[in-house]
Amino acid sequence: MDLDLAQVRAFVRAADELHFGRAAAALYLTQQALSKRVRRLEETLGSALFTRGRGPVELTAAGARFLPYARELLALGAAAARSVRGEQLPLKVDVWGPVHRPLSLLGELVSAYPDLLLELSMRRSLGSALDAVAGGDLDVAWGRAHDLGHPWPAGVRRRLVCLEPIAVGVLAGHPLADAGAVGAAELREHGLWIPFEDRPPELTGLLRAYAAALDVPITGTALNLGVEHTIAELRRHPRRVTPLGAWWQLPADVVRVPLRPTPYLPWSVVWRADNAHPLLPRLLALLPGSHTIRFDPARDWLPEPDRADLPRAAPNRRVPAPR
Q1: Which CATH class is domain 163-264?
Q2: What global pTM score does this model have?
Q3: Which of the four pLDDT bands, split at 50, 70 and 90, describes residue 141?
Q4: What are the CA-CA distances from residue 46 to residues 8, 32, 40, 62, 287 (Å)?
Q5: Which GO terms describe its molecular function (predicted)?
Q6: Which CATH class is domain 1-87?
Q7: How far is CA 264 from the centre of its chain?
Q8: How far from the centroid of its chain's Cα atoms is residue 277's Cα?
Q9: Rounded-to-integer distance, Cα 288 and Cα 164, Å
Q10: Exposure string (b/e) for 117-130, b if CB count within 10 Å is 16 or more?
Q11: Which of 81-90, 98-107, 234-243, 265-274 reaches the highest mean pLDDT?
Q12: In whole angstroms, what is the distance from residue 140 CA to residue 270 CA?
């Protein structure tokens, strides 16, 4: 059986995105071209890899079984090509998603240190990336290290690097749009809506814990297709109040309002202890240290497990915005 790596790459990207349009854009293909590559791969393998219909794209059981081997095929192909050219292998890093702090932080590092070679992926959940780190398919992953729903894998280390503040977004004209900040009383009146129900568990766990701590009603919608879909749903339901990153770029008709107390999404860097990649120690050394983390318990909020990860002598100052 001859496998075409271009077809395999199209499958892996579609599996990461679970959206053929976004996968095609990431590979600089038309959606039709990407779909054709995936179809041809399915014909070669003799099995459907995705379910297709009016609902969200999902992996079939065969697709889920094939995915780790497909990633390995791409990694081996890249390694073989670089060995011929004598090039150094990049660090394989999962940055969770496109709008969060890890991606912009790594972008700043790569701009400052062009020889820091990184190969990025976006699994949108630390839970889905942990097995890849433990198995050697990924060198580094990012995410919140709690509420994952399964034990932490042996031999995998983590270090808290930064806190990303969470605000709420409302449409212009919403009763809270002109508020200087939103607290428990306002949230109890309007409630919180999140564009997911239980996945990714580390994020839903944090937001539901925040709502419970403030005694705020919270509702979720099962389908989550990313930030653009969240904004579109907000426009369809203009009374909704939804959590958004305080540093995200938002369209003009969406108003960001600070939360009091301010919840944070903690970002930890994760790697396998015995990973011998020569660039790994350098990346870990370049990342901000624990002394840069600022958390004020009088104004800020984290679940108890995440508070335990904070440096013991963290100064009570505000978290600086990214440059």
Answers
A1: alpha beta
A2: 0.70
A3: very high
A4: 14, 21, 10, 10, 45
A5: DNA binding; DNA-binding transcription factor activity
A6: mainly alpha
A7: 14
A8: 23
A9: 14
A10: ebebbbbbbbbbbb
A11: 265-274
A12: 6
